[in-house]
Amino acid sequence: MQRLSILLISIFCFGFLQAEDGYKLWLRYDPVTDPQLLVHYNKNIRGFMIEGSSSTLLAAGEEVKTGLSLMLGIDIPQVSSVRKHGVIIAGKPGDSGVIASLNLKDKLSKVGDEGYIIVNTRYRHRKVIVIAANSDAGVLYGTFHFLRLIQTHQNISELSVESAPKTKIRLLNHWDNLNRSVERGYAGLSLWDWNALPGTVDPRYADYARANASIGINGSVLTNVNANALILTREYLEKVAVIANIFRPYHIKVYLTARFSAPIEIGKLKTADPLDPDVIEWWKKKADEIYEHIPDFGGFLIKANSEGQPGPQNYNRSHADGANLLADAVAPHGGIVMWRAFVYDNNVPDDRAKQAFNEFVPLDGKFRKNVLIQVKNGPIDFQPREPFHPLFGAMPKTPLMPEFQITQEYLGSSVHLVFLAPLYEECLKSDTYAGGKGTSVAKIIDGTLDKHQLTAMSGVSNIGNVRNWTGHPFAQANWYAFGRLAWDPYMNSSDIADEWIGMTFSNDNGAVERIRKMMLDSREIAVNYMTPLGLHHIMYSGHHYGPGPWVDRGRKDWTSVYYHRADSAGIGFDRTSKGSDAISQYLQPVREIYEKRETCPENLLLWFHHVPWDYKLKSGRTIWDELCLRYDGGVKSVRWMQGEWGNLKEFIDKERFEEVRALLIKQERDAKIWRDGCILYFQTFSKRKIPEGVEKAEKTLDYYMNYRYTDIPGISR
Ligand code: GCU
Fold first, then answer.
1. Average pLDDT over the chain, rounded to whole?
2. Do residues 342 and 354 touch, judged by C-beta distance below 8 A?
């Protein structure tokens, strides 16, 4: 445990001596400078007790000690008994006579395995603050919550917090390759230095785990869904075990992606047929071997029969056959399987948006108990805006877990300021009507609707080895927001933003308000300059950074013309009953709402309808005019963000202020390229005048079609 202390001390001290580089994320523990608040904290916090001695509790103790001394500017002593007012007591009733004597049983019975309570109470007439839980992990989470209260300058004299996660497994999916490249990663190389492991361990692994624990993330899939079977060999498992050991005190399990053809590639079998006895035996032995190295291994994530990945369908077997094969192998060890529903095939002559539903709904009820189906938030692929995936609510017998993308593959990579909590929230709050009105996606994935015990949420990580972890300083907020929503899918983006801003930049009310507004608006701004009114998948092929509505070559379902369907009559994909009928996959009344142009939400209009260019929207404007104005509005809003950021100079350290300022300039350049490229291209079909007020494009369509970026992070040229 000494290692932990040294690590933490080095993190904090190092951070202090250095120019502000964003390394500390939201765990900055900046000194509280407001004199009144400082008096309040000093009165209420005079010492702390950590009851118990596990590595998790020691980590909690280190965090309290370091966090408090940094924020309060004095050393808060660790004590072993309550002899004065103001002692913080953290622990479980089983380890702590003090906590056991406090009559917290009822409260603790409500917060389950990983939850916690934080209360002000008295112990032998002395005022104390108790952070109590039923497990060490709960104590650690409670500790971070308590520190957050101080980081965000809250009053701590009347605390009555009860918090428990609403999903059981909350994990990051790293799309990291063994050569350290990161698929759709824009923040440097993978954190996992496989060449150096197991002998050399990067101290960042512990910092990573600590940051995740602070927001309740309890699992990490270390490898890309486009998997490499080598990760399952003994050599790699030894390396993985080292990472797992570092994560363990922070209550984080490791998971790996399993390549379906691994029995052939590393097992020398002739087949990977899931019903073949040798294949079954091979996976069973492989699972046993994994658990020998990593006794608390979480399980497998699998992408099968999608985008060229091998899978059970290669042997005419179903996704259930494939998932159950792996589920049976890990079940004796308590492992789970997350089987992805992101499947589509250009040889299937049906709308891509419909294929996952068609494939998986008939399999409902056919999966083992330890299988979850991992479903992207929308039916295509992490677009700036999609309707919720129709699978949510359509497989009551199977636990479904949402997959959100934290890395900004389609949202400006690590260059654009786009706060993604509103996107996640929009999906989680969508009403599926699966159990009648008010059956949000959140109610399905947290198990309340269908009484599932196994529940989970995953986010595709935006983390790399750049110093500030995520590239854009604001991209840290997306990691943060994902963790908070995985803990509580009912949280509001606005509250999440407030927490993050307070911990990361400033607690000044005016500054928080400004930054919050920028963050909350930023996603809609990006939608406007990229894919307004329900447009989707019109990005440049290869890299997905800039516009490419003109992409019409190659695999059909990877072109843009497949999705926007612009022609002389109008624009948009007809997914109504007269078109691809994708709307039939939604329940009533959602189906009917989407079916009619008049009731379809305008922000999804071109997702579901092919609309004549002169079709009038609620604003009274034609779709053509509205499209142009939205694109233009997006660009102007980026300029507004630049102005807002400029006004924040006095509240932000020089380094991060400058970094964000420079990024917003690039964002404006890109927004203009999106706007002008798309408007000029769609104008070749609409043949209409660009409405007044829209800025004139500086270049010709040809220029935008041939534009080559030289500065997209993570994209090789
Ligand atoms: C997107 C992304 C791929 C990724 C895939 C997936 O299509 O561009 O890089 O592999 O999603 O989620 O499997």
1. 96
2. no
Tokens of 186: 């824009």
Amino acid at 250: Y
If you measure from the C-alpha of residue 552 to the centroid of ligand 1, how many angstroms do you get, rounded to a whole number?
20
Spatial contact of 343 and 313, defined as CB atoms under 8 Å apart: no
- Ligand 1 atom 12, closest CA: 342
The first and second tokens of residue 438, run together, are 């008010």
What average pLDDT does range 358-371 have in this prediction? 98
Quick check: 425 and 370 in contact, CB under 8 A? no
Asked if the model's pLDDT at residue 17 lies above 80, the reply is no
CA distances for 279 relative to 235, 308, 331, angstroms:
21, 21, 16
Where is 438: in which H helix or E strand? none
For residues 56 and 248, what is the distance between their CA atoms, to the nearest angstrom?
Answer: 8
Q: What is the pLDDT of residues 83-129, one digit of tens each?
A: 999 999 999 999 999 999 999 999 999 999 999 999 999 999 999 99
How far apart (Å, rounded) are the C-alpha atoms in residues 375 and 391?
Answer: 8
- 367, exposed or middle or buried, with CB in 10 Å at 0-12, 13-18, 19+? buried
Statement: the pTM of the whole predicted model exceeds 0.85: yes
553: its two tokens: 């070559």
> Ligand 1, residues 301, 381, 406, 557: which to mutate, most atoms within 8 A of Cβ?
381
Ligand 1 atom closest to the CA of 403, numbered from 1: 12
Averaged pLDDT for residues 168-175: 98
Q: Name the more confident of 528 and 14.
A: 528
Average of per-residue pLDDT across 601-620: 98
Continuous H helices in 73-225: 97-100, 105-110, 136-151, 204-214
CB-neighbour burial class of residue 179 (10 A; exposed 0-12, middle 13-18, buried 19+): exposed
